[in-house]
Predict the structure.
Amino acid sequence: MDGLPNIITTQPSTRIYFPRDSGPSRRRKDDGKHVTTLGFGYVNEVGRHGFEREPFSFPVGTVIVRERRWSPSSDPDRLVVMIKREKSFNRKANGWEFLTINGAGTEILKREKDGKCLKCHASAAQNDFVFPMEQR
Amino acid sequence: MKKLSLATLAIAVAAAFAAGALPGNDNHAQVLDQISGYRLWTKVNADPVKVEIPNTGTDIASLMA
């Protein structure tokens, strides 16, 4: 059993020890206060020009999708979406609706006008609630 | 008469919601259809950007929302 140092078998149970530097613990930063994910962002044709200069400004109909991945090669497990609607839809966020969708894009898990989404995006209010490239 | 008007209004509003006619109340299928094929859209960032989410010990997915 030299090839399996992480498996210890003693009657009547078997214990498997995973190396500390693999698995979910890699997602966590050293400080333990944050979890690091990777973001790949996409914007539809309507909103494409909104990113061209700061401060950003996006027309109604803009849709921004950001994938959440745990590594560059993994499939997204969540899509975080912003849809720009008429300002009257959500005056607090200049018309934006925030959605969380499963990674396959087949199920909406949450949609909101404020809450945690707006709380964070409010810090980018001067950029039409969209974070600049380096913060996205 | 007033009661009848209110009832009519309530039915009209409910029907509008069901049909997704009111702004912001698109049905889910419509939204999912809207984002399908998003990978063909313009990429906002050429390389993946690290996104740090506060770790409060609760469900990570809920923090992303």
Summary: The helical segments of chain B are 2-19, 28-35, 60-64.
